[in-house]
Amino acid sequence: MSDEANLLYMLAALVFGYLLGSIPFGLIFTRMAGLGDVRKIGSGNIGATNVLRTGRKGIAAATLLGDMLKGTAAVAIAALWGPQFAIVAGLGAFFGHLFPVWLGFKGGKGVATFIGVLLGLKPLAALIFALIWLGIAFTSRYSSLSALIASAATPIILWLLGEPGMAGLAIILAALLWWKHSQNISRLLAGTEGKIGQKG
């Protein structure tokens, strides 16, 4: 493949991933359920944790699954072109979730999509991420703290699994995830962060 063709495929993978990642499942599902605009409750986030604050566990679970699988789908489809395109599509999907064009570039915080991208690239890493998240969530009841610790561990996990390219992607995703959680970090330090299942 020529350099020009490779660049074109890279751009296509990035845009494809972005468009998939920008689908706001939390907003779509809550509106379909007659719950209104999820951005007007709790943290104002469109992700599953905030959807859970509506009290509708089924809708929150559907949001989590949708946000995960859009990352997985982007990676799996782009992988048909080659592994490097899968990584680029994963980056695009994550950006799409964080900055969806349909919502004025104000999206979610990326945890579910992070897991979905990992699931498409390296299922074992996704499993380890989920186990770390569950362990921290069970002991602390803080979704944000669980995501911060699990995402920070992911680049190391991928490196140890012999995937330096994926580890590089995970560093970028984790940095963005931490940035999107900056207010959560401030609340955690202040002891005012909301816990899992707590209604806003």
UniProtKB/TrEMBL annotation:
Its EC number is 2.3.1.275. It comes from the Bacteria. One of its GO terms (molecular function) is acyl-phosphate glycerol-3-phosphate acyltransferase activity. One of its GO terms (biological process) is phospholipid biosynthetic process. It is found in: Cell membrane. It holds the Pfam family G3P_acyltransf. It is an enzyme of class 2 (transferase). It is a multi-pass membrane protein. It catalyses: an acyl phosphate + sn-glycerol 3-phosphate = a 1-acyl-sn-glycero-3-phosphate + phosphate. InterPro entries: G3P_acylTferase_PlsY. Pathway: Lipid metabolism; phospholipid metabolism. The chain crosses the membrane at residues 6-30, 85-105, 112-136, 156-179. One of its GO terms (cellular component) is plasma membrane. Keywords: Acyltransferase, Cell membrane, Lipid biosynthesis, Lipid metabolism, Membrane, Phospholipid biosynthesis, Phospholipid metabolism, Transferase, Transmembrane, Transmembrane helix. Its main location: membrane. Probably interacts with PlsX. HAMAP family: PlsY. Belongs to the PlsY family. Catalyzes the transfer of an acyl group from acyl-phosphate (acyl-PO(4)) to glycerol-3-phosphate (G3P) to form lysophosphatidic acid (LPA). This enzyme utilizes acyl-phosphate as fatty acyl donor, but not acyl-CoA or acyl-ACP. This is Glycerol-3-phosphate acyltransferase.
